[in-house]
User: Fold these one by one.
Assistant:
Number 1:
Amino acid sequence: MKYILSLALAFFISLPSMAQDDPKATIDVFASQSAVQAGGSIDIAIRQNIIDGWHTYWINPGDSGEAMTIDWELPKGVSVSEVREPTPDKFFYDPLVNFGHKGQPIFTQTLSLWPKYSADSVELNGTVYWLVCDDICIPESQKISISLPVSDVTQNINQSIFEKAKKSMPRQVDWNTSFVKKGENVVLNVSVPSDLHNQMLDVDLFPTTWGIVQTTSDVTSEIMDDVVIFTAKSDDRDLTTLTQASFVIQTGNEAYEVTANLKSAESSVEYSFIFILGFAFVGGLILNLMPCVFPVLSMKALSLVKLSDKERSHARASGIAYTTGIMLSFVSIAGVLMILKGAGETIGWGFQLQDPIVVTVLATMLFLIGLNLMGLFEISGCFTNIGSNLTTGNDAKSSFFTGVLATLVATPCTAPFMASAIGYALTQSAFVGLLVFAMLGFGLAFPYLLLTFVPATQKILPRPGAWMDTFKQVLAFPMFASAIWLVWVLAQQAGDLAIIYILGLFLAIMFLIWFSKKSTSKLWKGLLALLLIGVFGFYSAILSPKSTMNYEPFDNAKLENILDENSDQAVFVNMTAAWCITCLVNENTSLSQVEVQDAFADENILYMKGDWTNRDEKITKYLEKFGRNGVPLYVFYGAKNDNGMRPDPIILPQILTPNIILETIQGE
Amino acid sequence: MKKLLLSTAVILMTTTAAIAAPVVGEPAPVFKGMDTNGVQHELSDFLGKTVVLEWTNHECPYVKKHYDGGNMQKLQKEATDDGVVWLSIASSAQGKQGQVDNATANHVMKEVGAHPTARIQDPSGAIGKLYEAKTTPHMFVIDAKGVLAYAGAIDDDSSFKPDGIATAKNYVRYALNSLKSGEPIETSSTQPYGCSVKY
């Protein structure tokens, strides 16, 4: 009944052209729905009716002309989207070519209302401007308006118009696409799904902006593995001013719109390949100066100062081992990255840092190295091999691991500083990519390698002396600074709570170091090492990402309501606070477990969570009701039993396990 | 093994005669043309002077946009007063919009108060195609050494609505000022806009 009324109110006016006596084109406006909801949106269609032999223009009009513009006078609370346009036709005016439309092209826009839009109807007025040409051009315009009731009751109208519009428009696809200027040509690489490859052999290419492809150019297609390569004559625009461009690829039966990223031009593969390798090498050299790496390298270099002539040959072996360690580490990280990327993961260099556990390990390592440089402790063989004898040893094995260590501690620095260069390497083939990474590693290793191989270079090193200790201690500070930065990164990833855990871990480490100096008992040291591992394990368990259960914020009124009414709803109340470690442990180890979440869903239990982090009268009162003055508190209100009686609420213990919860809610 | 399929490549470049496309920063193509007073002009006549080429068609709405409000005339006057040579070129073919005889052309120019150094009649489209002139207006600025310094639109408001002229950035004026002060031209190539040249 009501919608018939709405339908009657939904009408669309298009006044005749204002300026022209004999317009070459007119406009009709249509809505996709009979009414529009506040907070909702509908589509509107703008149809040009162009007389035979004349045409209007596409968003990129080609060699001349101008696209249609729609100026809406938008009332408050109403917005419209960009105009979606049909795939264009080509119009040839030798030697010029235009892109445009003939007949009855239909453009669409989405009209949206704010949720708070309160008027009964939407009255929209606007003006459409377009240029229409055959041999000559005439600018025309027309006032348009649209009037729609605002109502929740609505139905589809004008479906054939909107179906026709959709059919005439390019399909928006997210195929990976890049374009580059190669000599006289523009080359577009598009990852087209293989079932569509056959369609791609004969296409028209329409860039949505000017100056990329010559309007008169034909397009050749080449299919290589998963990529279709389109080549067309390039136009005169300087493409370096663009970073992205959209193209419509029109095949015989359908059109697709892709967004392409500009690839930096490469004049020839050989040249650019060597250039990239050189670039990577220099990048690696620069890495030596990064705050996380410089101390490692410095100490390694200074160890050479103390060598006697006899040991020079060992030095060479050590240089090679160090270099191998670095290059292997770089190549393996890159390899893993490429495999993951190949498997469709959307990751980039620095992906290692996306895992809170890895960040924790790195931060801890930097902290330890800092302490070591400070002279607080010497890492002895029994503890760990990695990083051992940073300052003294030169045997091949320890040098190899120093190389690995240098790579590991370098990663937090590479991520922000080398992102774009490494990103480029990753777009190359696997072989080129790995070589680039190997070169990066070689650059990082080079200064030390040089020192070990060319004894003359060692002369630039200052003479050993007491200053070395001071220098070493100074070097600890960049390490601590890097560690601080990583703690911040961790807090972004895993929340504020992570800070207290990682600083707790640092505290445990300090304690262990202090204690091992005090005590000579191996048993105690062993026990403490175990304790440390325990702390770390606990910490990892807390950090590892978990799905949290959907909850409703605690609302006493609502709870009372459910309990008073004859409702059958079961409720589980969790009173918690951010500073309550027990609460958080319970949430992580029990409440967020899958079996618990499933059980809540199966038994249709309303999960209410009260946050007592800040003072809250209502929660305090609720706690008092159960004789408590603190959190955690877990209360379960069971559903009614067969007699229609609600059982007494059950208070759960303060330390939860999944089993305790399951037994309680399943009434066993 | 890569499968390699090549589809047919048909080059559609049916453009006539053009020896080389005009490229900003390279010598501008040389041409000869007869003006509406029967005087022959050659680009080489103007070595040592800055030259502006303006493709025109007085019936095109975009040309009208710039003449009706006096925008084009003002720029022409500024430029020629400054010693710049301004050639308006009509490349409309015989019988197409914008092609008129010398007397009518002179009359039209007088009526609107146009101020070019000369108006060149190019009904064969030879000069237009040599410069790959696409639209009216389509503007070219050639420096005193005969090097193409600017090619493209007259300004950055490509609409046929005249409201934008006042606030638009006039690329030709910028180019002329930069040449005068010996500074590099910031924007030396833009997309021309307007009606197509009626070859």
Number 2:
Amino acid sequence: MSAIDTENNVATRVYRIEVHPAEVADDPVGRSVLHEARELHLAEALREVRSARLYLIETTLSETDIDQVARELLADPVNQRPVIGSTEPADGAQLVEVHYLPGVMDPVAMSTHDAIVEMLGPRAAGCEVRTGYRYDMIGAGRDEAERIAGAMLANPVVQSVSFEPFAPEAFVKGTPYELNLTHVPIRELDDEGLMKMSREAHLFLSLEEMRCIRDYYRDADRMPTDVELETLAQTWSEHCVHKTLKSRISYTEGERRFSDAGDTGNAGSDIDWSSRPNHTVNDDGTVTIDNLLKSTIAAATFELTSDGVDWCISVFEDNAGVIAFDGTDAVTFKVETHNHPSAIEPYGGAATGIGGCIRDTMGTGLAAKPIANTDVFCVADPQWDRAKLPKGVLHPRRVLKQVVAGVRDYGNRMGIPTVNGAVWFDDRYLGNPLVFAGSVGLIPRDMAFGEVQPGDRIIVLGGRTGRDGIHGATFSSAELTDTHADEFSHAVQIGNAITEKTCLDVILQARDHASGCLYNAITDCGAGGFSSAVGEMGEKIGAYVELEKAPLKYEGLSYTEIWISEAQERMVLSVPPEKVAAVTALAEAEGVEWCDLGHFGTDDAELVLTYENTEVGRLSMKFLHEGIPQPTRQATWAGQSKIGNRKSEILDAPIDRLLVKLLSHPNIASKHWIVRQYDHEVQGGSVVKPLAGPNGDGPGDAAVLRPKLDSDRGVALSVGLCTAFGDVDPYWMTLASIDEAVRNAVCVGADPSKIAILDNFCWPSCDAPENLGSLVRAAEACYDGAKAFRTPFISGKDSLNNQFTTESGETIQIPPTLLISAMGIVHDTARCVTMDAKAAGNYLFQVGVTTNQLGGSHLQLVTGQGSTDVPRVDLAKAPAQLATVAKLIAEGLVASAHDCSDGGMLVAAAEMAFAGGLGVDLDLTAVPREGELTDLAACYAETPTRVLVEVTAEHYDAVVKALQGTGVPFGELGQFNDSTRLTARGNNGPLVDASLDDLRNAWLKPLDW
Amino acid sequence: MNAKPKTLILRTAGINREGDLIRAFELAGAETLTVHLHALIDDPSPLETCDILGLPGGFSYGDDIAAGRILANRIRHRLLPAIRGFVAAGKPVIGICNGFQVLVKTGLLPGFEEDADASPQRVTLTDNALPRFVNKWVELDVQSETRCIWTRGIERIECPIAHGEGRFVAPPQVLDRLETNGQVALRYATNPNGSDRDIAGICDPTGLVFGLMPHPEDNIHPTHHTAWTTGLDTTATSGLRLFENAVQYAAERVAQPASNA
């Protein structure tokens, strides 16, 4: 690229502008970098960090123009100082500069470009902007600066680091693409050749699938083009088609072996296989399951809907599940995972995770309006020894900080409240952290379905297409290794929330247009990009696509790259030709880019891809969507427990010391550090906030919001996550998770007969029969739990290759992780309750029995004392028990309610007390039990289905009568009081006398980052 | 029957709390008209037909470069005289969060008398002392000596903040002048972001143009307050009264148009 604009003969050059704080002392960013570097012990000699924002502008503009841009646009006249060029490092500081790599989405650069053009007019057109940060590290040497940059400031996947002022003479440019139609000789390949191709071309298809494709092209008597193969790989990826969950499975149960001799706790955990839909018990004792998803999770929903559950509107079909909210509107819910991108680039991975999930909401029915986000993270110990970090792995503390920042920056900018979530810590997530992102939407009931019509134009709204995110779908379906960060950097994406927000603004106007909805169907470009979006929308009628029509971020993309790019913030609408002008007028009024990519409907329902009038691909939709071979997969379950293999800290502490220890366990400790970074009030519907109590120092059980500001009807959102039980048996883990999610929603006032749930399975490789076996058990529990609680599954997503292989070949499998998310209807939000204790003199009841089963409890996690005796949900009793609690709340008889789960009863009681600023005195012998119960279990067992409720003297009799009337076991544990202490006495007298301030601090401090 | 005062709600790419603000004005008795910046630049006539102007919260243009900076520049280049005319006509303006950042960066606040032509930026809203986004509830004390028409008769408001760049910063002499001139309308009871002199909101010398970082529009319903489940009377510190004040002011102005010349 010449540095001379030949047409006007004006030299282009790159200006460098530094924006410094006007006062050295007024530099919060520099201070925060210094603080973090010290926290991480990265540079003991570092005394001070000074930050500056950098802008590189490649333009023909004069220095006078640039000076005006710097003063009027880039620097704040009150507290900043612009410098054109480079300043000398301060006080002999070592310089660190961080710049985005060329081609990486840089929203600030895009906005700056637009603002310069607006400010200076046409003469600024054609300018290009890149941005970066400069840090002057005072007191640090080059080595320390490199360490800080590597550990905190830059990720080489998307950013470059420079130790001197970065001032390129010209920006790197793409070169124009010239059509180069590529055919792939697959027909001649043997098994070895097929697998080599699958691996090297990053198709990640199995041998059987590769053979199937080869045979298809042998029959068709032609070679596939590269874009056809890519389309098949994307569409057949685990990520897109859930082939494991949908496959036929042969399940074998081995003999049980427990690590703890004499432990018989789970001897009765056998599943009754006899009467399950599409399950065949064979003579040899094996069970054949035809389509696991359909035969368990979906089966429960369909059985429930044919048995009186009449409020499901759309399940498993669309981008999100849809249930009735009131007479006119419906609510939608979708939860996604974005694990592998987040492992490599946590900030961008999490941001695009939530961004993609929000697009699912926008692509549900004829577009739902996003009204809430949820997020759950699973990471390793944030105190992990930095020196023992395997190659290719980011430190867990950094991962957590950056995934939170990613969700924060995307959700907050979109103006969607992030209201509920959880974090689970386990060292097996070291190389493969989990990021779950959920999105809730509101949609008119009569807009819940769309259908593509032949002749509709394929209109794309939103972001431009670039090389970012290529192979995301196939990459997410593969296993992570230490070299993935290098190999798959192109699968990583950075989002631009404002592009998505403007897209949403346009879509809602088009949906609610005075003349009726302007389009027939809508979906988002997620994994697989256009290939999945257009491929799915045109599944029944075909599509004709002109790939050169897509606006590109930069030159040089091939037709295949355009087709499979996962560039963010793009929505695909199926628009009748006569309405295209109205849609595009709305887009242009809001400054949203659009293109017309072709049309739906072809003669043979084929997918036809062209580039500049040359056909580059032609595939039968039938083969694309139904051609994938369905092998039988082997699943085994030997009943082996993993408890005892984990890191443990043997601790023989008395009950009061354990209370502090448990409140400080990171799973239980306050997540205010995260919650406070999310806007949970925006949209004005907040009823029950994530942190409860007048001072916001109690862990709310679930969030409640009013999606319609003129109505007091609400939606409750909660999660259940009981990963530790899964080390013994995923069946009981799953039931506990469903129970917990439902219980959390009930505790704030949701109607338990109107709760829908979602499943997100994150498993290690299910090519291993024992992992598939544990997945089967979890799925069977989903069926049993959903049916018993009458909580239909409405949507779900799985991620089944979550393990990390280190440089030395060791594979770390994540623990089988099932997130259950629940969404429940609240009839009258004025009746909602929170978990903070309300008044001295009020009584504290425990509803539900406690058992001595301590397996998988947090007590076990902190003491390391092992047991495989995990608690079990009693499906015969649990639903009625929670319904009773719900009824008490609905009748206004309960002052506060708190679910009794992680950490057990004493932890829950302590949380209620300090959140309400009240003391509490407890009698452990009043804890409901069946048979004998130890004081330890009374305090810390995590028996499911238990709720603590606070009752006033006024309602005491009514509550007791109601509980007795339904036969639900309950006990009166004690009263709240005006003291500042939590006291408890057990079988042999006083056991705990603790200061509430100490307990609150134990809970607040561990993650107070 | 008297027509309701009409509030013009200005939105653009990245504005996201317009729904909250619309609800607040409607509950306060106003009608609302929501207009995109592009449309208002093309046709500024709604500024003549509307009685109140509201700049809602959000992340205009992503808050790229700095919060509110790009929107402020666009207004400065395309719309400033029209908005000045709106204020000169005696009509109230509120900017909340991003709207406050925009009012400050266009120079409409503090809007000292001598600034009318050049509209220099005198104060700023910048990175919180802990430089990241924070959402929490705050207590706000209305300054008794303020000339702000929005806060009349109110002593305390409780509502959430939700911002990453809400630290109010100004040179000492400007701060002094704001104080002496009754332009400091709201202070934080407990400073959440390092703002100079705990300032949460200021007004212009006419008292009509009001900007604040916290979100009074998110405490207008009985179940908004953090402590509503305790049975606390939350109406005493509701944010709604701010909007009612402006709507009442506008209604009176409409009733006596001659007095606003």
Number 3:
Amino acid sequence: MSLQVESLLGIIVFLPLLGAVINGLAGKKLGKGVVTFVGCATVGVAFVAALFAWLHLKSGQQPFHWLAWNWIDAGSLHVNLEYYFDHLSALMTLVVTGVGFLIHVFSVGYMGEDKSYYRYFAYLNLFMFSMLNLVLGSNMVVMFLGWEGVGLCSYLLIGFWFDDDLKAQAGQKAFIVNRIGDFGFLIGMFLLLFYADGTVDYLQLQSLFSDQAREVGTLPLRDSLTITAICLCLFVGACGKSAQIPLYVWLPDAMAGPTPVSALIHAATMVTAGVYMITRLNFLFMLSPIAMATIATVGALTAIFAATIGIVQRDIKKVLAYSTVSQLGYMFLGVGVGAFGASVFHLMTHAFFKALLFLGSGAVIHAMHGEQDIFKMGNLRKLLPITHITFLIGTIAIAGVPGFAGFFSKEAILHGSAGLGLTTDVALTGPWGLSEYAGVFAGWFQVLTVVGLVAALCTAFYMFRLYFVTFWTDYRGDRHSWDHPHKPGFAMEIPLMVLAVLSIVGGYFPVSDWLAPILSRPAQLLVENHDSALSHMLMPISITVACIGIVAAWFLYVGPGRRLPSLFASRLSWLHTVVFNKYFVDELYHGMIVRPVQVVAQALFLVVDRVVIDGIGVRGAPWVVAMTGRMIRFVQNGEVQRYAVAMVVGLAVLVYFLK
Amino acid sequence: MSGIPLSWWLTLGTVLFGVGTIGVLTRRNALVVFMSIELMLNAVNLILLAFARQRGDEHGHVLAFFIIAVAAAEAAVGLAIILSVFRHKRSVNLDDVRALKH
């Protein structure tokens, strides 16, 4: 039995790869039916396999490994292509394959008329393979393999319609911004490798940095500065992949891809990789209070920053994109304060309701013949009843209304942020490990909690603004779309319904308890701080906040205050302009980073490329050969006797000198 | 023969070799050049044999026989080439045979 269970991991990981290979190499000839079957069935079977593996784990069995093969064996460095199924990776695998399967099914309807149908499914399956490597890998190198793989697939799918120049550029932007993050991740990984006796395996790392090691004093590195540096480098990687300040800029642009891709990659799975990575390495991050506080602060700032942008966007997918950035900020706030379980909980519920919202928006866009501006929609509940109901459920879930999934997970994060304070590790040396910071952090986390609450208010407001403007009020688009909408078929509606159910019941899954076996350590490093006033008042406050946001959205966009938004926009036009243009961050980056790089690149092109490489290198080499040939060509004149003279003279000279 | 000193043989050989060399370098008729090459080979043979006699070492004789054999083979090949060239060009003048220039 145990052998079969272990080989399940191989099925989970490699079946999507098989699908990608079949569809990618032969999809053009196979026909649509076969492509659909291969694309969906491989992921579906992977999901069933994940369910079996999960049941095995749930019945009280130990986490298990599956070794594919020995990958790198160089000196003291041993890296296996090995997969590890424990409580955390089980949860991630279920979310990835489950949501992934639903989105594959949805894509059958959404992408049905695309001419590159097979290519789409090949990329999507390749993404599943990479993502499963990321979450199932038993060491950091396999995780990095998946980390790069999902980045590649993200690039391929954002630029899926590459004949549109803007979309191709969006793909490149995502790829390049991710490279910045990946660079940090790599450096962090190598630093860890260097200090942690050349091991990259999670279990070995965990035992190296375990409580016992700390108490006995055998930690591989005791310098808090180094640990902080490693953690911050890894966090830079997480910032890139999970779209946190300052590297979030690629995610809103990534909406150029097909909408199911936005749902799968840019909402549910890939962008949560950073949260997963930090949770996976929680034993390491817990050793660095500074890094944790940085993560929490960046998370909270991102949450509020993106939420304010989301309020004024007009593009349905852009609103959801900024919402995703904002919700990812919540997750980072959660891991930053040490509430790992709550973060992974929010990761899971967010995967459900944000995938639902994106797929719902996909159904809306599909019905409206590609229109994405919500102010050219309206009253769509008449046209798309099922999409309307499921979208409403998703909106309620993200807004934090009690009883729905988002409420529980968001509450858990804010509760952690208000109620936990980090202590510092006395076993560490160096200036950044001093314990007097503990009190400061506890106070600071209270501030971040308030920021989180304000972001929650914004979230409830902009999501219901989106909902009301799209599904209520009067229709403002063109007649043709209204009279002849592309009604979603079963392939699109069934995933919506399943995700809607999950968005409700997902909140009742005890994620924190489920993850307890791998998160046993934080208790030692965290002081419970439940006495704070905020902690007691949190639940009523956040419910009130959600209700205010919803009522305000109704008042301003459906109710009596319908004229107010445009009035605000004209009276405070400078503010509206700044926020609508996303605080001009893209322009700032363009001026500060992209332009200088382009100027340097142009200079290098003119000097190094044109002059040195083209001129001296490429044209110089044949010039030298030609000149040499021209100079010595008279030697070969075809007169045998001159050759003979040369030989005789040469011989004579030789004899003279050898004498 | 034993009365003739070694230096005479060497002088004769060297003179023959020099005559052959000059013939190779200066004459334009391929057949004459060919004969000059034979002259050079035989000059070398003469010197080899002279040394062999003087030193009582039969290796020189063996080498001379090899040279004669190789020269015979070379003469056969060389004459065939010259014949073939003549059929093509109606001439055995070396100045006319310079197709292999740059």
Number 4:
Amino acid sequence: MDLFKTIANVCLVLLALIAGGVCCVYGYYHFCVKDITIGTNYVDNQVGLDVFASDDLTEEQKHEFEERYFMEANFFSNDKENGIVLQELKFNYFTDYTLTSNAYRSTGMQFLGDLKQSDLVITKTTKNEAQKYESNSLSYYDTTNGVTWEGNKLRTPLNRDASFIIKIDNRAFEIQLTGTYEWTTHKRSWWSLWLYNQPITNILYYNYLNVFADCMQAIRTNNQGYGDYYITVDLSQYFTIREYDLESGKFKEDNVTDIIKNYSVLKFHYDENGARNSTQSTFGIIDCDPKYDLIQNDIDTTYWQERMVYNLTDKDFTLRYSEVYDGYFVSLNIDTKKLFEEMPRVKVNLKIDTSYNDKKVVGIDYNGFENFEIDTLTVQGTGKFYLLDKALYDSKVQTIKYSSGLILDFGKDAVNGEYVEMVI
Amino acid sequence: MKWYVYVICVVLIIASVFCGINLYKEIKAESYINGQIDITNRFSQESLCYSATNLVFNLDTYADVPDTYVFEQSLLKVDDFNAEKKNYQVKLNNYILFDVQINAGSVFANTHIDFYDTNGELTQGADMKISILFLSDKTQLKFVVVGQESRAFMEKYFADNGIRLQVIEIIEEGVKA
């Protein structure tokens, strides 16, 4: 029995010695040898994996859906003093690790005014206070489809507890605001007869207001100026990114890499104007009012249909010279007629001058505007103006205006249907 | 052995497990890069294609004509617009614009839209001038309307229909967007 006990003790001691050796090696490696490792995370486009893989989408639709960045901002600086200063920042992310478009979600924040980092008071906060803190000076909005936004309690809170799923290299990652700012103050200690300044470490837990102010500062200082641009911002001091482990089904923390840098594209619209109308907002809402407008709009803009009006003149027509009439006849070529057929709801007015570029225009050619819908035909000049056979046949012309010095000569079936003649 | 020797041994063994795992992690740790960012192609484009879901006009306090409202937008640089060598057409939503003046590096267009009420009667007609300047570092887009009624109706039209403005190069076989 004693023998066994002795052997066990020896083994234990040996094991302890080896363990001590491991501890020493670790201590030596950690403090004296260890090389620096750097991890870099680039947060780029957040378009769902299914969008580009889909066969149902046309190239045009893919082009339309191709942009969706983690951070998108909208900044109306009101430098022209024609509206209000409006700052908005939204985060595009996924609600699950499948990274498909049906898991899209966006949460945004809006500030009416020009928020700068210097406006934020640096005060010491406790972790518990900071975790759930959301600034009252901002309005928050949420969407799952990117079209309809709501700003109520059912939205995702933008605080330090919130973690978002994003796509990097077509893999799922989690991003969370975890950054802190530490600074040291000194306090004289009574027990050292006020001779010793005791250092006290203060911690500020960053919140989304800090991120918001820094993004706006990045936009304000971008070298391109006003417009729609993209910049890459360093989010390392604010966010922690964790990769999703397919095997364990968990997001794993990287506590080995010495320096972790997180970069993200910030897409922004920076405007010299001020915001005037809620439609200028990313969320379609300003100050929680979807009908916000600085101009009291008492004009009734209700309408049934609109029509794009085209005023075609001699330069748009095809000219044919006639020796018999000693002048040019105008008509519309088939290509132009085809163009108009493809355009919905147009209203076409024709204006013909009998003198065009030193050319004498004497009339409208055979079938010149046949089957081409015209609202008003205006002819200016003097002499005789011929409308040859079927010149305006089935054109549904409503009004024909002509100069008092002109005589209109109608050929066979030149015009059918009712119209009004006016001398101008 | 004394009891505290056992305690020390156990503590050392437990500590070595922790140190061993961390030592392994630190030795195996490598620098890494996840993802990539390439936004170089986001600062120029092949042709002009501006689209938005709505458009808001602001009062132009410097305009010669009173009651002038403008919408201005700086867009990405267009790589090779050159109307001296190429032909272009301008398209607003589904309409090809005819009243267009295309210069070497600029486009000016005039449009007119009539609005009808439910009885088919003309309610309002609105003129809008479009100017596009293709500059060396950006493209400047400007829409101008005169009169509050025109502004209000055009804003309503764009809110209802969105806006898609394209300057399209005409090539022999067709058009290149």
